[in-house]
Amino acid sequence: MKSLKDAKRIVFKIGTSSLTYETGLINIRQIESLARILSDIRNSGREIILVSSGAISVGFAKLGIPRTARSMPEKQAAAAVGQCELMYLYDKYFTEYHHKLGQVLLTREDIDHENRKNNIVNTFESLLQLGAIPVVNENDTVATEEISVGDNDTLSAVVASLTHADALVILSDIDGLFTANPATHPEARLIPRVTAIDDHLEEIAEGAGSMRGTGGMATKISAAKICFENDCTMSIINGKNLSRIYDLLEGQQVGTVFMKEDA
After folding, report:
1. What percent of the chain has pLDDT over 70?
2. What is the per-residue pLDDT across 85-124, written as a single tens digit (0 to 9) for each?
3. What Cα–Cα distance (Å) separates residue 14 from each residue in 92, 129, 204?
4. CA-CA distance, 153 to 104, in Å (whole number)?
5. What is the rounded distance in angstroms from the CA atom of residue 50 to the CA atom of residue 52?
6. Of the residues 74, 205, 214, 217, which has the maximum number of CB atoms within 10 A of its CB?
7. 3-state secondary structure of 250
8. pTM recorded for the entire structure
């Protein structure tokens, strides 16, 4: 496993709560900052893959559908509208920094089917070789419970595995993994480094995430397990201050790093 400072191919995952306001609409300043920083990192010679949440939340807000509406057809319609909005903005801001994007939408069925999985891997490799930045999301317009990956923390770890990425950086609405849920335990302390995942660690990964997202700390621990199995270093940092990405990749202590002891 490589240190984040040495990572050459990095998957970045940004959650819904880091991309949107409480209204569900896009935080334009945040998405512009993300495009600028990731473009700069790409300019340094590193390869970048972005896994982005937010389509369903943005779609609900744009369509004026109340958050209490959660039927599968409504989610799929919202995803179709929200995905257009997200990709329009990503394309607009990444283009300003002279970078090309390629959209990749996945379901569990794609990943579990050997031929489809090989096609996905080939597509990622071609996009990266051609200098494009893949932007990945679950294909929520067609995904049902049976073929859904379930959350983008898991999806980002699967993408990191498929692409043999050196690192996965999860941009969350929390500073990292704590000894307890900081929302209910003010005395909770940040855990700066995790070298093994055991039952105790899974027990403290409580909480269901924010109102606008689908994951919580438990899904991030599941993502870390996938990364450990594939020699990929993982980090969780707060996505509200995106400039900390620079500190992280320069080797400074930011958030929680998941890296095996024998790395």
Report:
1. 91
2. 999 999 999 999 999 999 999 988 888 889 999 999 999 9
3. 18, 23, 22
4. 16
5. 6
6. 217
7. coil
8. 0.91
